[in-house]
Amino acid sequence: MGQLLYLLSFLPDWFWGLVLTVGILATLAAWVLRMIPFVKTYSLPLNVAGVLLTLSGVYYQGVIANEEKWMQRIDELEEAVKEAESKAKETNTVIQKEIVYQDRVIKEKGQKQIQYIDRIVQGDTIKETIVKDMSPEQKAAFEKELEALKNNIKNCPVPKIVIDEHNKAAVNPTPAKGEKK
Amino acid sequence: MKKLMIFTLALTLSGCGMLQRFAPVPPPPFPEPIKELTEKCPDLKQIEGNEVAITELLKTIVHNYNMYYLCSLKNDGWNDWYVKQREIYESKLRKDAKK
């Protein structure tokens, strides 16, 4: 049945319009022929053929209308898919820009902080930059702290146990797939 | 007989339109992930050497905090990406499919 309908679908639309018209005309002709005495015997087969043609004509008009409706629906969905695709790309670009920007901000902040620590350790440029806007009391307190830090760096290395514990904590306990535990 | 004829005509006019059908539209391709988000988070930095100054320890800690924030950015980025892509999918395609 499916194959038959598939083959019939290759017929042009106007053909089914013609079938419907012929079917209606045949039914009307059968009705007229019934009133004529000598030819009324032909009215029954003509009526049957007319009804069958009308039914198949009407059915295929429905098929054509239905097909048109679905083709329109497919077009709408294809349009929606295209729109979704382009919007997804646009969103990706926006998120990517934001990620790249924030990534740079975080990296810069980290670098600045490490540079600041280096500068404190070096101590030479501190006076011109960090201390310049401080009040004399703040300046004295800062220099005292700096002196304590220098003493600490010189005389108190971090105990090995602290380093070991730090390193242990820095190791990922759940290595990524494929990596050896 | 007339009623039967009208019923049959109405039935045939539907041309199988009453049956549920699915539009043969391929689903949209899965959106490409953002390259920056697919990069693996690096391992945390460890301290090398036995005699380490406190400032070296501090620098390593700062570096590791920084790595946490970079990795957290990726995680937030993935969440953001998922929420927005899902929103697009649901608003554009589900709505159309329900029509």
Question: Could you explain how this protein is built, in words?
Answer:
- The complex is a heterodimer of chains A (181) and B (99).
- The longest helix of chain A is centred in the middle third of the chain and has 80 residues, at 43-122.
- The model of chain A has no long low-confidence stretch (mean pLDDT 86).
- Chain A is rod-shaped and about 135 Å long.
- In chain A, helix 2 (13-33) packs antiparallel against helix 3 (43-122).
- Chain A is built from 6 helices and no strands.
- Chain A is an all-alpha fold and 181 residues long.
- The mean pLDDT of chain B is 82.
- Chains A and B meet through helix 3, helix 5 and helix 6 of A and helix 1, helix 2 and helix 3 of B.
Quick overview of this protein structure:
The complex is a heterodimer of chains A (181) and B (99). With 181 residues, chain A is mostly helical.
Radius of gyration of chain B: 30 Å
Structural class of chain B: mainly alpha
- Low-confidence runs of chain A: none
Kindly report how far apart the N and C termini of chain A lie. 63 Å
How many separate helices of chain B? Answer: 3
Q: SSE order of chain B, as H and E?
A: HHH
Order of helices and strands of chain A: HHHHHH
The secondary-structure class of chain A comes to mainly alpha
